[in-house]
Design a protein that fits this description.
Elements (H helix, E strand, L loop, with lengths): L32 E9 H14 L4 E5 L16 E2 L8 E2 L2 H10 L3 E7 L31 H17 L4 E6 L3 H13 L8 H9 L7 E4 L8 E4 L32 E2 L1 E6 L2 H17 L3 H4 L2 H5 L9 E11 L4 E2 H12 L3 E6 L2 E2 L1 H16 L4 H4 L2 E6 L4 H4 L3 H10 L7 H33 L2 E3 L2 E3 L4 H37 L13 E9 L9 E9 L2 E9 L6 E4 L2 E5 L3 E5 L3 E2 H6 L2 E6 L2 H16 L8 H20 L8 E3 L12
Parallel strand pairs: 2-5, 5-6, 9-21, 13-15, 14-24, 15-18
Antiparallel strand pairs: 1-10, 1-11, 2-7, 3-4, 7-8, 8-10, 11-12, 11-25, 13-22, 16-17, 18-21, 18-26, 19-20, 22-23, 23-25
Protein name: Phospholipase
Keywords: Hydrolase, Lipid metabolism, Repeat
Catalytic activity: a 1,2-diacyl-sn-glycero-3-phosphocholine + H2O = a 1,2-diacyl-sn-glycero-3-phosphate + choline + H(+)
Length: about 650
């Protein structure tokens, strides 16, 4: 039965209507509203915009962050103070000093961070990444100078000791009941039905508040501005578009993080600030008890908000993952947008390990081909992915990354895990076949005619004959499973012995063309493997021996972006990664819009950046071929120890290490 679609028309003006895909999430907490929107690519642009907005603040600054480093230089021009043409006096370049400076001017500063445990302890500081450096006397980032660390410690100490009313830092976390609820939902309500119990436990134990936003002067509609961010307020996240391998010792002069970093944020104005404020105000009330919605008469202010100049005016929507409120709108958004894909999907994300998204993409193109789309004639759906392949980027999620790659036919990009996963699967199949053979043998024994003194009593029954046939089939299946396991083990041993990966071939997904890539610094330097002499003593004698020294490899760019663009029309980005944690567990905040010119420009800007202006074509089929050329040329250049032609290289993960905690 076909659905009827009712479209309101004005016959005086037109008798036609144009249908569009449903990009926004319907019937949810934050509806699409007029927005002044400006994407901010990488740290120099993002932190510079936030710094200027805070420098001009006159009433309030509301910050939600995962990580906060008071000594971080938001603007890095070699100076401790920054002079803006429309601000009377220079202002501090470091965010902690800038907030103190504005507080002295009477601006109300509220910073809501994530902490695990009591506010003045934060056990998360001892995790893989210190999110509040200086909050504890032992927590010092590797790249921070002694002066920076001393300032960080003093800044947090002042907040704890004096608790100034107009400059507050408050930590928020999750209680035991929250964690139990998350564990239950992960087990029984997760979109990924194959998520491991280990992962479920880790998610509940290490749930975080991962949102990142800034709101300045909400009370003043004519100057209110907000930011929906992917960047954390830590040194590691400041970088320029050139992603140079050069690291500065002093952060006021440039990037001092461990490596280059790709990320995306945005500035927003207009009615969307009501929703940005609501997200902050409800979280602040839950943490502190202060009701900002009432104090600021938030609804009345919202009625006066309008998109201002400095960004494109469009319709946009804020979406959240908020497990404490049972909100999973970002998950709904991603699956809905993937279902709408007809020409291209571009994903730039820190992680790529949420199999339900891969299945949705395949289902979308599968449905289209079933309805008559002929890919060779009508075009393929092209999926372009930029994500991390390094140890830092893969961390706890190699298994689910493999599941994602395998689902899309690209297990060849992660051969070590693919081969190990194949071995695990073969072992599992052999165990199942062995159990079935043993069970069949038991049934044969139970139905066999009685034998006493070598004499058989009774004839073979039909039931026994059937059991014999089942036993024969089960034993044959067991032998085949054993042979397959043995063959896979031999391939794995041979590959390990030769030092080369066992060959895993890409598999074609009907109607889908896929590039999985990562990034390197354009000015990377690679050197050949060499040897060095080492003096050794053995058996009463000494000699010089050659010791192998591995050459320098291309410098990876760490991708921290959380972006998806579909059909050059739809865009979403913010704090949410492509994993179960971001879709269902951690608190996350994304923005989404369906403005073609803005989405297309952002995609072009990013692709020009990654491909050195060689692979940013609007036709995805042409871009797909150009990406393949760049990938192949960079493979050759990497083998020859030359500089990369462009940042874009193919995703490759040779390590067989299995991690299954995310």
């Amino acid at each position: 039965m076909k659905n009827d679609y009712v479209v309101p028309l004005c016959p005086k003006d037109t008798n036609t209507a144009t249908t569009t895909s449903p990009w926004f999430v319907q019937k949810t907490e934050y509806h699409p509203v007029p927005t002044g929107y400006q994407p901010l690519i990488n740290g120099e642009a993002a932190f510079g915009s936030v710094h200027y907005a805070i420098a001009k603040a006159t009433r309030s600054v509301d910050i939600i962050c995962w990580g906060f480093q008071p000594s971080m230089y938001f603007v890095r021009k070699g100076a401790d103070n920054i002079k803006y043409p429309d601000i009377k006096e220079p202002v501090p370049a470091q965010i902690g000093k800038l907030l103190e400076y504005k507080a002295q001017q009477g601006v109300q500063i509220r910073v809501l961070g994530w902490t695990m445990g009591p506010d003045d302890v934060n056990f998360a500081q001892w995790g893989p990444e210190n999110n509040t450096p200086g909050q504890d006397i032992f927590s010092k980032p590797k790249t921070a100078t002694k002066t920076q660390h001393e300032f960080d410690r003093q800044w947090y100490y002042e907040r704890r000791l004096n608790k100034p009313a107009n400059l507050q830092f408050v930590g928020r976390g999750f209680g035991p009941l929250d964690r139990l609820e998350i564990l239950w939902r992960s087990r029984y309500r997760s979109a990924d039905k194959s998520i491991s119990k280990t992962t479920q436990g880790v998610l509940a134990a290490t749930v975080t508040h991962h949102q990142k936003s800034v709101l300045v002067d909400y009370e003043l509609p004519d100057q209110a501005i907000g930011f929906v961010m992917g960047h954390n307020m830590l040194d590691e996240y400041w970088d320029k578009n050139d992603h140079s391998r050069i690291q500065h010792a002093d952060s006021k002069h440039g990037r001092n993080g461990a490596g280059p970093r790709q990320d995306i944020s945005s500035s927003v104005t207009g009615p969307i600030l009501e929703h940005l404020h609501h997200n902050f105000a409800t979280a602040w009330k839950a943490a502190v008890g202060e009701d900002l919605l009432s104090q600021r008469n938030a609804k009345a202010v919202a009625a006066k908000l309008y998109p201002r100049t400095g960004g494109c005016a469009l319709m946009a929507q804020l979406l959240r993952t908020q497990s404490q409120a049972n909100k999973r709108d970002i998950e709904t958004l991603y699956l809905q947008a993937a279902n709408n894909a007809t020409s291209m999907i571009y994903i730039e994300n820190q992680y790529f390990r949420w199999p339900p998204l891969a299945e949705k993409i395949k289902a979308a193109i599968g449905a289209q081909t079933n309805w008559g789309r002929n890919p060779p004639k009508n075009g393929y759906l092209h999926l372009f992915v930029v994500t991390n392949s390094s140890d830092e980027g893969m961390s706890d999620g190699t298994v689910n990354t493999y599941r994602m790659m395998d689902s899309l036919g690209r297990a060849d990009t992660i051969p070590g895990v693919a081969r190990k996963s194949e071995l695990d699967w073969r072992e599992e199949q052999y165990e199942i076949a062995s159990k079935e053979a043993k069970q069949a043998q038991k049934q044969v024994n139970a139905s066999a005619p009685q034998v006493e003194g070598g004499i058989q009593f009774g004839s073979i029954t039909p039931e026994h004959q059937k059991n014999l046939e089942q036993l024969s089939a089960a034993q044959q299946k067991e032998q085949e499973a054993k042979a397959a396991l043995s063959a896979s083990e031999n391939k794995y041993r041979q590959a390990k012995k030769s030092g080369q990966d066992a060959t895993i071939m890409p598999e074609e997904v009907p109607g889908l063309k896929v590039h999985i890539c990562t990034l390197v610094s354009p000015d990377s330097i690679a050197t050949a493997d060499t040897t060095r002499k080492q003096h050794v003593y053995a058996m009463g004698s000494s000699q010089d021996v050659d010791v192998p020294v591995e050459g320098q490899q291309w410098t990876p760019v760490y991708i921290h972006s959380k972006l998806m663009i579909v059909n050059d029309v739809f865009t979403t980005h913010g704090s949410a990664n492509i994993n179960t944690r971001s879709m269902e567990v951690d608190s996350e905040l994304n923005i989404a819009h369906e403005w073609k010119s803005v989405s297309q420009k952002l995609r072009r800007d990013l692709w020009n950046l990654h491909t050195k202006e060689m692979g940013a074509q609007d036709d995805p089929a042409v871009a797909y071929l150009e990406w393949r050329k760049i990938i192949n040329r960079n493979k050759r250049r990497q083998a020859q120890k030359l500089q990369p032609e462009a940042s874009l290289i193919e995703f490759y993960r040779g390590s067989p290490a299995l991690t299954n905690k995310d």
